[in-house]
Write a structure and sequence with these properties.
- There is one protein chain.
- The chain is mostly beta strands.
- It has three domains: 34-134, Immunoglobulins (Immunoglobulin-like, Sandwich); 141-239, Immunoglobulin-like (Sandwich), CATH 2.60.40; 248-462, no CATH class.
- It has two helices and 35 strands.
- The chain has helices at 2-25, 348-354; strands spanning 34-41, 44-46, 50-58, 64-73, 76-84, 89-97, 108-118, 123-134, 141-145, 150-155, 162-165, 173-179, 194-198, 201-204, 212-215, 221-228, 233-239, 252-256, 259-268, 273-275, 286-287, 292-296, 299-302, 307-314, 319-323, 332-338, 373-380, 383-390, 398-403, 418-421, 431-433, 445-452, 457-462, 469-471, 474-476.
- The strands form seven sheets. Strands 9, 10, 11, 12, 13, 14, 15, 16 and 17 form a nine-stranded antiparallel sheet that branches.
Length: 477
């Protein structure tokens, strides 16, 4: 009797186990999934884009659990992954990013291998064929360093898979990304293809990806970059500095009026173009437009008379101007007084955060240092040009006069001139921009003064010295 009871008890337990299995997984019955359909859209695509996998998978006897895929071309697995599935029927629609691999041929045959599994490890496989993968083609690419330098890479005439830039003045080591598109502010637009570092190699990345790194040994700077889009590698050619190049390592530090400058004494030649390196090539730097024409981020042409100059670079104001020993007529006029400043795009707030109570305007009455006055360059016989920020944006006031030398010689009184263009100057003695209660508010801006001593006229025009970036001669504002 006891044996019969035990037998019935065990039979009941086993039955309950079967019921439990049926509730959790369906009937414990050997079966395999079935691919009712499977396709990739589009059938012809570009490596670096996404494709959509659609499939219908059924298994009426056993619950589905996983769909795995691998995309293969030229006997290499380009990408693979898993897609969870369930139930006894599953409609799949899944986007898959198809990366571009090193040495990937164009117009390549591609296939997608699929394996479906159920909870009892039953499997079924299928293959999608007649797919074509194409290499991306770019008219140009942008190499963007982590410090904001942008270089245009253009395809070589002999090898469209290689993108090249020359005549550069890039640091010998830098981190970078290579982008198909840029935003208006010269940052990377990630709606296009972007290349960076993936496990120590150049590959496609998104916003969360890392920058790649390059180093050119035994050189002072990098003058040429080649991006091999087929081999996904970058090559550089280094070069050494010449005596004509401008680099901050040869500048010395000097404190002027409580501000820290980097200065360099050297000969400058009229009409000569000088190459700029490192910080001096920062697109945000403003080179005094009366003495320099910036022809590219890393090049300036000198407009002044050939001679000996001191170059002044202010890293906070991000501007560069020149000075000479004992400037005087007829080569120069000097404007000193209150409310002028060499052009800069750095705001008074930014300047004051480093140098309290300092502003974009910096001149004062006197000639004991170069911050107290500004130079006007002779552009023709009896004609002088100076471009200054005025009046101060903190007080909207200026009062100054041009002089022929630093000994207060031959001052130029306002009442002696006829003013044309922007009517911002008043007064008979000092050149005033007043800020009285009944005076109009004059916009603080960069104004160019052209003083003609031949006919005693002064033409004043407002000039826009916005940050302007040039890549290999191609301008972007």
């Amino acid at each position: 009797m006891n044996s019969l009871y035990k037998l019935l008890f065990l039979t009941g337990i086993i039955g309950l186990l079967f019921v439990s299995c049926e509730n959790d997984y369906g009937l414990r019955k050997e079966s395999t999934p079935v691919f009712e359909s499977a396709s990739i859209n589009p059938v012809s695509f570009t490596f670096g884009d996404s494709v959509t996998l659609t499939a219908r998978i059924t298994d009426p006897a056993t619950t589905l659990t996983m769909l795995t895929y691998e995309i293969v071309s030229e006997d290499r697995i380009i990408t693979s992954g898993e897609i969870p599935i369930g139930g006894d029927a599953q409609e799949v629609s899944h986007a898959i990013f198809v990366p571009l691999l090193k040495n990937q041929a164009d117009n390549s045959a591609v296939q997608v291998n699929l394996i479906a599994r159920n909870v009892l490890k039953g499997t079924a496989s299928t293959r999608i064929t007649d797919l074509t993968g194409n290499r991306p083609v770019y008219n140009q690419l942008y190499l963007v360093t982590d410090n904001g330098t942008v270089v245009i890479l253009e395809p070589q005439a002999t090898d469209k898979n290689k993108y090249q830039a020359g005549e550069l003045t890039i640091d010998t080591s830098f981190r970078f990304r290579i982008a198909e598109k840029l935003n208006a502010d010269n940052t990377i637009d990630y709606t296009g293809d972007v290349y960076g570092n993936v496990n120590g190699r150049i590959a496609m990345i998104n916003e969360t990806g890392e920058s790649a790194f390059v180093y050119a040994p035994e050189a002072d700077y990098i003058k040429e970059i080649i991006f091999d889009h087929y081999g996904l590698s970058i090559a550089t050619t280094g070069s050494n500095l010449s005596d004509e190049d401008l680099i901050l390592t040869v500048f010395t530090r000097q404190d002027i009026n409580g501000e820290s400058f980097l200065v360099l004494q050297r000969s400058l030649q009229n009409g000569k173009t000088y190459s700029l390196f490192n910080e001096l090539a920062d697109p945000q730097n403003i080179y005094n437009p009366d003495f320099f024409e910036r022809t590219a981020d890393d090049k300036v042409a000198f407009l002044g008379k050939t001679g000996e100059y001191t170059i002044y670079y202010n890293p906070v104001r991000k501007n560069i101007f020149v000075g000479v020993d004992n400037p005087s007529y007829p080569d120069y006029l000097l404007a000193c007084g209150w409310g002028l400043g060499y052009p800069t795009n750095i705001t008074s707030e930014q300047i004051a955060s480093v140098y309290p109570d300092h502003h974009r305007t910096h001149t004062d009455w006197g000639f004991d240092h170069v911050m107290k006055y500004v130079l006007l360059r002779q552009t023709d016989e009896g004609v002088y040009q100076g471009t200054f920020y005025t009046p101060g944006d903190h007080d909207h006031y200026a009062s100054f006069k041009p002089f022929e030398n630093t000994g207060w010689g031959n001052e130029k009184q306002a009442g002696s001139f006829t003013f044309t263009g922007e009517q911002i100057i008043s007064g008979n003695n000092n050149w005033d921009i007043p800020n009285g209660e009944d005076d109009p508010v004059i916009e603080s801006a960069n104004y160019r003064f052209t003083i003609n001593l031949n006919d005693n006229t002064v033409h004043i025009e407002k000039v826009a010295l916005i940050r302007q970036t040039t890549f290999n001669g191609v301008k972007r504002n």
